[in-house]
Specification:
alpha/beta; 7-stranded mixed sheet; 30 helices; globular; Mopterin_OxRdtase; Mopterin_OxRdtse_a_bac
Length: about 775
Amino acid sequence: MGKTKHTGPIKLPAKPDPKLWVSKVPFGLGKIKPQHIRETAKIAWQNRDNLPYAYRILTQGVCDGCALGVSGLYDQTLAGPHLCTTRLNVLRLNTMPAIREELLHADIDELSRMSSTELRQLGRIPYPLIRRHGERKFSRATWDEALDTIAGKMRTIDPKQMAFYLTARGITNESYYVAAKVARLLGTNNIDNASRICHSPSKTALKRSVGVGASTCNYKDWIGTDVLVFWGSVAANNQPVSTKYMYAAKRKGTKIIVINPYYEPSMEQYWIPSIPESALFGTKLADDVYQVNIGGDIGFMNGVMKVWFEMEEREPGSAIDHAFVQAHTNGLEQLRAHVAQQDWTTLTQSSGLTRERMREFAELLARAKSAVFVWSMGLTQHRFGTDNISQVANLALLRGFLGREHCGLMPIRGHSGVQGSGEMGADPFSLPGGEIASAADRARIEQLWGFELPSWQGDIVGVTLENALLPEEQERKLRMFYTSGGNFLETMPDPAFVREALTSIDVRVHQDIILNTSTLLDAREAVVVLPAMTRYEQPGGGTSTSTERMVYFSPEIAGPRIGEARAEWAIYVDLAHRVKPDAAEQLGCGSAEAIRAEIALAAPSYNGIGHLRERGDVFQYGGAWLCEDGVCPTPDGRGALLPIELPELRKPEGHFAVTTRRGKQFNSMIYSDIDPFNEADRYDVLIHNDDASALSLNEGEAIVIYNSYGSMHGRVKHAEVKPGNIEVHWPEGNSLIPKGVYEQYAGIPEYNTAVIVEKAETYHAHKDTRYVERRIQELETEVE
């Protein structure tokens, strides 16, 4: 852990810089861009019935949108107020009224005709609901009836047959911690969370490469670093306030590099509404874009290192920071030998980039005195996601871009609740402040909690869903699934399989603030719905951890309350008391303050959390930079340089590589059918013009994309996508993604595959139902 403390926000330059302007035409008139003023007015209108409360949430609470860590309207990076449309879109979840009773108790078939967006707009869940097998409507239940139903089922089954899952919907550290403790008290290690589905390879790779499981640096380090690299991350779309940090970095002379299969318009230029100069004339963000193949990042990085080692042969010290490498790393010679055996033809084919382009990037980094590498799901959600991140760590270690100002490794988090989830122990591999696999961590937590932890390995959520379809006699047949938020129908691969799995569970519990499509599915015995409070309603307030390890206190905010909704952590406590009345004293967790005091004991890095009591309270664990001065928290204090093999990309002849992307949405909550950055709608398929021409496809033409796993109907949208690759929106494209394909080390589902693209009329003209199977087989056996 570092000794240097974060120094707080800095000011933006006062004078404009016309060199960064996109256009002299004010407000980007005539260009494809978000209409921030119009959208803000629309959101204000949506919240017109609760504007004073909405204002208090925005000015007093910690943002429940992205994980930049905006408290009220301010953060620790830049002085001045910050507000983005992502946060504004999420705002309505906190201010809308309860669902009207006639809608809440409508026939299930009527509700099932609605999309998740339409269900969300109905309002908040006001009281517990239950729908038993064969019933066509939800019935109102008392809290005693609902929780006794759940507890009664839990007492009759093996703990291996129950599972918990928590999404990132504004959930606080307190709720994660209590859920993790309750799950273990009830005897199960089957607990997982949304963070692990997105960034578990980041934690796994960083742990093995540099000994930490979080960002090693701060957002302030973006501002003034020589090179800021976004790898598989569209921060401008997913974390809009980050564009202010990019603007500040550009004003300091930072070069911004984007590495992505799609030339994302929002990363090239952006009109930042809270900076007058940028709001008027826009800001050029990216200095260069390297369009890799989907899954081609390892090949690209091996190519970069190959250039470096060639440079070193000609001029030692021209590419590698030998002083840093010698003092702070292991494995240089093994990595050098591994990279040397890579041939350029394979690297260019795998990456999709020429040798010259790889050399350009290598030389840029070799000249840089500092760099920050930022990445997201474009790197993690592959079956080789951990290797992707360790490759990024290799680059940082070879250049000494670690443990000092303007340097670091940053897995940028998408939601405000996710960084703390694993750190609170809410996944099958973690305990508060440690790991299940560590005997010392297990002993420490058992002593603190006062009960023995289950010793068996818990399942990741994908396997949990698969367990729902196991034969009745199987030990891990899933019979009880308790989810806090989440909609697996719209987040996991193979929605048809997910539907079958969810309807095969005996009792399914949805602890949430709104209904979604998965809430409405049948269960073999009962579906129980529990109304939860938002983070702003919870007595005693709550905390969340940002990407840069800032732990923020968000106070309880005065305002209207929804029916019988309860704090999430309080529901878990009540349930545990009903399942194991004799264990109530062991559980504790009677108030938010008591939970924070216990977290400080359970997770040593969080020892300041008990002092967070007032609006604006915050601390950063680990100091400004983890691995400060190059010293890693590994057994020998050194980082590991790891030889990473090229993955098999598995794209047969005649197929396209496909990946999923986000549009105007927050997680799976979609706020617009049109992406304001490229005017693509949810069923547009982004394809390069050359690829479309080769298939005789015109803009807007109906097409079918398919493989052996499923199909998707869409329309052609010409876009600057790497040839041979296409992109579809998530979750609309999830029907193409195979189930059961998990990353080797972290267990993350893969969201990339290979598909065939055909005109819809061609696809449907073949009456033979075996056409798809034959067509796939034909293309897979063709030879160039």
